[in-house]
């Protein structure tokens, strides 16, 4: 069976890496993309990342799962308390929507500049994707008896961790230092593709 | 008993991560002028940064060798060099790091404190939400400035109780204690600020208008002001979800 699914790990605001992985996956026909969450924070361009992802979702060829950074943003807006989101590095996300110094009332300024389509997109993200014996979600979980488990969230170094029953795909995209890599796992082959922080295809 | 530390305190020392290669005790327990309520301050040398641990009366901070190097010529470094007692040092690197700390640059310290005090000048927006963090930092800046003043005057002192005596200011001991069980109050905050102004002058006007805006606008800049603002958000929670900013070593 040819590969028809790709699972992509934490992007964390790196638009170059996201464009690079989408380019690398473009050569596969009829591939559905399942993004495993954490599109925001860390890297400098969360707003552009989310815009591109939502475009692909509307086109019907991508599913966007929620990560804890998306959940934290929604919790901040719902509770009118930015503290935890800022402690997670939410500053880069807020900056990417404003492109200028933020007003003293950060929450209001951010609310005024977060597009309704992005907010709706964030609110509609499911936590789990399950099909054809594959269980995909942001957090690693025990999926015993529910098939092959695919997750992200926990950094595993520059290479994904792939076993007979699971795959972990957070290879550090958006992080400082070496900038990490963005990984896509192809299904059912379990081959994987990677791009570096600049979006260049690895090996 | 090690250094006269009560067994009840020693028993509270948490298990240390396996990556620790050196441990040093500092503060009043190391100097030997601790009172019953004093904390046990421990510093552990690690290869990769870890969040601090506070358990009971024990406060354990983790530093990499690179972080310790930023303490050279700082008050923190001088304090460690003067009062610190090394309990464990697997490869001699902790002793070498402490030995290299050198003299405190008090002029530089006062100028850094002045920059950081900008964080205190948006009270209408910040105090309702961030008083605990801001009070903690006002204490830290006041305590550091008093230590630096004592050094600049040629009579170093890293004991809050002795500073209170020197300044004839009996409130200082309570005001500057590192651990506070009572609710933070605006009265204490104002008391710290007025004493700090006597040492460094008027605080700069807030350029960002709030603590949260300071975090957002200074983000990525690796500045003292960002570190201050970020830490004032509060230390609750912790864990791997949270971003790291540089520690402040005054």
Topology:
The complex is a heterodimer of chains A (203) and B (250).
Chain A: E1 5-8, H1 15-25, E2 32-35, H2 46-58, E3 62-64, H3 68-79, H4 83-87, H5 91-98, H6 106-113, H7 116-123, E4 128-131, E5 134-137, E6 148-151, E7 161-162, E8 166-168, E9 181-187, E10 192-196
Parallel strand pairs in A: 1-2, 2-3, 5-6, 6-8
Antiparallel strand pairs in A: 1-9, 4-5, 7-8, 9-10
Chain B: H1 7-10, E1 22-26, H2 28-31, E2 40-45, E3 53-55, E4 58-63, H3 65-69, H4 75-83, E5 85-89, H5 93-99, H6 106-116, H7 123-152, H8 160-166, H9 171-176, H10 186-200, H11 211-218, H12 224-232
Parallel strand pairs in B: 2-4
Antiparallel strand pairs in B: 1-2, 1-5, 3-4
Characterise this structure.
The complex is a heterodimer of chains A (203) and B (250). With 203 residues, chain A is α/β, with parallel strands linked by helices. Chain A has a domain at 5-68 and 125-196: 4-Layer Sandwich (Purple Acid Phosphatase, chain A, domain 2). Chain A is 32% helix and 20% strand. Chain A is built from 7 helices and 10 strands. In chain A, strands 3-2-1-9-10 form a 5-stranded mixed β-sheet. A 5-stranded mixed β-sheet of chain A has the order 4-5-6-8-7, with no helix packed on it. In chain A, helix 1 links the parallel strand 1 and strand 2. The two termini of chain A are 24 Å apart. The mean pLDDT of chain A is 95. With 250 residues, chain B is α+β, with helices and mostly antiparallel strands. In chain B, 46% of the residues lie in helices and 10% in strands. Chain B is built from 12 helices and 5 strands. In chain B, strand 3 and strand 4 (58-63) form a beta hairpin. Chain B is globular, with a radius of gyration of 18 Å. The relative contact order of chain B is 0.13. The mean pLDDT of chain B is 89.
């Amino acid at each position: 069976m040819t590969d028809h699914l790709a699972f992509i790990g934490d992007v964390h605001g790196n638009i170059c890496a996201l464009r690079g992985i989408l380019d690398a996956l473009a050569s596969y026909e009829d591939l559905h993309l399942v993004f495993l969450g954490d599109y925001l924070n860390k890297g400098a361009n969360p707003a552009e990342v989310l815009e591109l992802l939502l475009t692909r979702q509307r086109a019907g060829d991508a599913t966007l799962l929620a990560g804890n950074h998306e959940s934290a943003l929604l919790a901040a807006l719902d509770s009118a308390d930015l503290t935890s989101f800022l402690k997670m590095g939410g500053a880069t996300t807020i900056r990417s929507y404003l492109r200028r110094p933020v007003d003293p009332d950060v929450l209001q300024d951010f609310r005024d500049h977060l597009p309704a389509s992005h907010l709706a997109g964030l609110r509609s993200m499911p936590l789990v994707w399950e099909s054809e014996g594959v269980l995909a979600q942001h957090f690693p979980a025990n999926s015993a008896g529910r098939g092959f488990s695919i997750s992200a969230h926990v950094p595993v170094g520059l290479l994904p961790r792939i076993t007979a029953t699971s795959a972990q795909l957070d290879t550090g995209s958006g992080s400082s230092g070496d900038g990490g890599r963005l990984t896509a796992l192809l299904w059912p082959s379990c081959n994987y593709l990677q791009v570096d922080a600049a979006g260049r295809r690895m090996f | 008993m090690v250094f006269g530390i009560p067994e009840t305190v020693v028993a509270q020392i948490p298990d240390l991560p396996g990556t620790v290669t050196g441990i040093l005790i500092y503060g009043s327990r190391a100097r030997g002028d601790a009172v019953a309520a004093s904390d046990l301050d421990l510093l552990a040398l690690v290869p990769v940064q870890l969040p601090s641990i506070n358990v009971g009366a024990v406060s354990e901070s983790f530093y990499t060798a690179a972080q310790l190097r930023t303490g050279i010529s700082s008050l923190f470094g001088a304090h460690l060099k003067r009062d610190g007692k090394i309990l464990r040092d697997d490869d001699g690197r902790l002793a070498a790091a402490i030995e290299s700390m050198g003299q405190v640059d008090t002029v530089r310290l006062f100028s850094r404190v002045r920059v950081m005090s900008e964080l205190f000048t948006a009270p209408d927006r910040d105090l309702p939400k961030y008083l605990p963090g801001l009070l903690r930092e006002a204490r830290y800046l006041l305590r550091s400035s008093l230590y630096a003043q004592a050094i600049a005057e040629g009579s170093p002192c890293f004991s809050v109780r002795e500073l209170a005596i020197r300044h004839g200011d009996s409130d200082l001991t309570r005001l500057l204690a590192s651990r506070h069980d009572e609710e933070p109050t605006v009265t204490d905050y104002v008391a710290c600020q007025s004493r700090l102004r006597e040492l460094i002058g008027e605080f700069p006007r807030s350029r960002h208008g709030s603590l949260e805006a300071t975090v957002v606008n200074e983000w990525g800049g690796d500045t003292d002001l960002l570190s201050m603002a970020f830490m004032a958000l509060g230390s609750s929670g912790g864990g791997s979800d949270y971003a790291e900013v540089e520690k402040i070593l005054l």
